[in-house]
Amino acid sequence: MLETSEAVLKELSVHYVGxxxxxxxxxxxxxxxxxxxYLNEILFGYFLKPFKTGTDLFKFKHETELGLNExxxxxxxxxxxxxxxxxxxxxMLKHLYLQSDHPHIKRGEFYVALFEDLILEGEMxxxxxxxxxxxxxxxxxxxxxxxxxxxxxxxxxxIKKLDKGCLVFNTEAESGFRVMLVDQNxxxxxxxxxxxxxxxxxxxxxxxxxxVINMCKDFSKDVVSREDSAQEKALFVAKSVKYLQERExxxxxxxxxxxxxxxxxxxxxxxxxxxSVYQREREVPEIESFGISETAVKQEKRKIRNTIELDTNIxxxxxxxDLQSGSKFLERGYDPxxxxxxxxxxxxxxxx
Length: 352
What we know:
This protein is of the alpha+beta class and 352 residues long. The protein has helices at residues 37-48, 70-80, 85-99, 189-197, 205-227, 230-245, 252-259, 265-282, 294-303, 323-328; strands spanning 2-3, 8-17, 26-27, 58-60, 108-120, 123-133, 137-144, 149-156, 164-169, 178-183, 199-201, 249-251, 289-291, 307-309, 315-317, 330-335, 340-345.
């Protein structure tokens, strides 16, 4: 998690970048942008707010040698020589323009910022912010004249929505720094993350925790629901999340023993095969043992649907925090006369 309460926006350079394939060119400012305190506060929130809830971390990469990654080298130089901040922000601008060669890429403002005293996972760090605004919004501007009020239309940037952003933290430089990303426009993500920044996922405990949960969700949908009921599908995911909530360290052997305790040996074998395919297709490291990220568990849990939806427009919602109720008080059966399945729910009284 990122903490910004003590952080300061120290430097900012603002440029303009167009689409190379359309020969729109770019404009590099001759110096850093001079901000008053109020504008500094507004821009601080505009740049950093989208990152406060993020947990995914990345790092710079290169196929042959990390030092050949342009953005890694530019950031490394700025951290080592802050007086070269603006010069290397222009180098970043030129590099972005060279990568903006797809006709769908939009022109826009390009910002490079220097932040001090951010706290990333308990460590105080500085960061280089790299941002681009593309979407323009229409605003009403009023003028209060002597006897009436006039309205004008103006185009501007919505400061509540950052289109593209990146924070590079001055930690773990030898392995590509630690990097956070924001991209609101998914249609052109590849050029920003791969062509311009050239980053890959930092395969840490957050990354692995999320992948375990997503793998279990996929397995429940592809395998458990095919062989068992929707009730068992929901309970399987709930058991998986419960295991992660109650431990600090993940063990695949222990996980399988606990979550598959009431499953057949065949399904355990299916899960092992499914895990191997999942890891290979998504290039995930071997998932055997790692520290569990509590934050990642909380975030992924909020995304899980714990509802059984029936074709009779009835929904049954299970409580993930009380798995015994889902097994003990909910019974599934088949009525041959109606030729329909049913769920029987046991309870003592209705809550009002």
